[in-house]
Specification:
By secondary structure, the protein is an alpha/beta fold. The chain folds into two domains: 61 residues, no CATH class; 219 residues, Vaccinia Virus protein VP39 (Rossmann fold, 3-Layer(aba) Sandwich). Helices cover 36% and strands 21% of the residues. Strands 9-8-7-10-11-15-14 form a seven-stranded mixed beta sheet, sandwiched between helices. Strands 4-2-3-5 form a four-stranded mixed beta sheet. β12 and β13 form a beta hairpin. α12 packs parallel to α13. The relative contact order is 0.12. Bound molecules: S-adenosylmethionine. S-adenosylmethionine binds next to α6 and α12.
Length: 393
């Protein structure tokens, strides 16, 4: 842990622009191992994400879903209440019958009865796992799960170092739900990606590239910022065995959407060699990105990068974009809006309508109803888009 004192570890800085990915509030292993502070003083955690790949896991997942559906049906048909939610539902029904007086307690105070949670909440929380709040463990503590032992054995665990809460400019150090959606799609359609050369834009911690690396031949996982790229490279190293088993390779590289050129400065730690640029241009047939549409200027920059790179590829290419549609209440509109999403959709439309002699872009949504290999909430705001970038000459 270097020179970091325990006091420093106990005092992570939270500022007004700190953002926290939901993924880390629902960490499946229920424990978060704090391993170090990064170069800018943020605590770094190690999480283990299990891949539900074998039939047993999938069968138990299916069983879980069936159980949830059964309960949901029981819910709807007014069966015996089995927990607080059902009790609440029963109370709500009784309320409808008994009228408003029932809302008041003995002293005449209003008794608030909570709405029953929706079925998907029950499915995710009740059947698969409980909602958990991060329990932070320090490396070196006696009861910390044995990282070294697990490293040697787990072929179905993705190990990711990440931070838990960051200022907006460091969001890439957390894992975002759209990365899981894209990873699920890769595992679901693994034959499509077998032996491909892939480019990820805004790869963050590298989780999606690492999963792609278990299927594809070569993945260029790109982002900006030395600290983030170092974390990403560490994650690639942590999952070496997983990647070797699939004979894939993940190369971590700098690619800034705000710049028109690849970084080729030999002094820069994540720069590209001429051979790597040529390899990308000659062989890349898949480009992917997850949760990269949250700022309109960055969205424009990313689409410019996509346009430039697809133009320079030797072959036609398929682009997969995963995102979470975020709804915000704005005082300006006095309503719930999703401005970043609207801008993304407009830009997507512009790309499809582009009149270009060399390229034709075709856009289609992918229904996110494919099976889940990772444990997270597949909320309805998650979307996956496919763009076919076809060379016309
Ligand atoms: C919300 S994070 C998503 C990270 C990861 N894909 C995931 O879903 O977990 C957005 C990512 O876009 C990257 N990004 C922002 N501006 C960028 C730029 N100008 N060039 C390249 N990447 C950028 C961030 O560094 C960050 O990794």
């Amino acid at each position: 842990m270097g020179d970091v004192t325990e006091e420093e570890m106990d005092n992570p800085t939270f500022k007004s622009d700190t953002v926290l990915s939901d993924v880390h509030l629902h960490c499946p292993d229920k424990r978060n191992l704090m391993v170090r502070l990064n170069a800018v003083g943020q605590p770094v955690f190690l999480s283990y994400f299990k891949l539900l790949q074998n039939t047993e896991d999938l069968a138990s997942e299916k069983h879980g879903r069936e159980a949830a559906t059964e309960r949901e049906q029981q819910y709807q048909s007014g069966g015996e209440p089995y927990d607080t939610d059902q009790n609440n539902l029963k109370k709500e029904i009784e309320l409808n019958i008994e009228g408003v007086e029932a809302l008041l307690d003995d002293d005449g105070d209003l008794e608030v009865i909570r709405r029953p949670r929706c079925a998907s909440d029950i499915e995710t929380e009740g059947v698969f796992r409980d909602r958990v709040y991060p329990v932070i463990l320090m490396k070196g503590e006696e009861d910390v799960f044995d990282v070294e032992e697990q490293e040697g054995t787990c072929s179905d665990i993705v190990k990711i170092e990440h931070t838990m809460a960051t200022p907006l400019e460091d969001v890439g150090k957390q894992v975002w739900r759209a990365a899981f959606l894209l990873a699920d799609y890769i595992l679901f359609k693994r034959d499509t990606f077998k032996c491909c050369s892939v480019l990820e834009l805004g790869g963050g911690t590298g989780i999606t590239s690492i999963i792609m690396g278990t299927v594809a031949k070569r993945v260029y996982c790109t982002d900006v910022g030395e600290d983030l790229l170092a974390m990403c490279e560490k994650n690639v190293a942590l999952n070496k065995q997983l990647l070797e088993a699939g004979r894939g390779e993940v190369k971590v590289k700098e690619l800034d959407w705000l710049k028109d050129e690849f970084c080729t400065d030999p002094e820069a730690p994540y720069s590209w060699s001429e051979e790597e640029i040529a390899d990308l241009h000659d062989h890349c047939t898949v480009i992917m990105a997850a949760d990269v549409f949250y700022d309109d200027d960055l969205t424009d920059a990313l689409f410019r990068t996509l346009y430039r790179i697809t133009h320079n590829l030797r072959n036609s290419c398929t682009v997969y974009l995963a995102l979470e549609k975020r709804l915000n209440f704005t005082l300006r509109h006095m309503d719930v809006t999703c401005e970043a999403y609207s801008h993304f959709r407009n830009t997507l439309n512009d790309l499809e309508n582009l009149q270009d002699r060399k390229m034709k872009y075709t856009v289609e949504p992918i229904k996110p109803d494919f099976c889940q290999f990772l444990i997270y909430e597949r909320i309805e705001q998650l979307e996956l888009w496919k763009i076919i970038a076809k060379q016309l000459m």
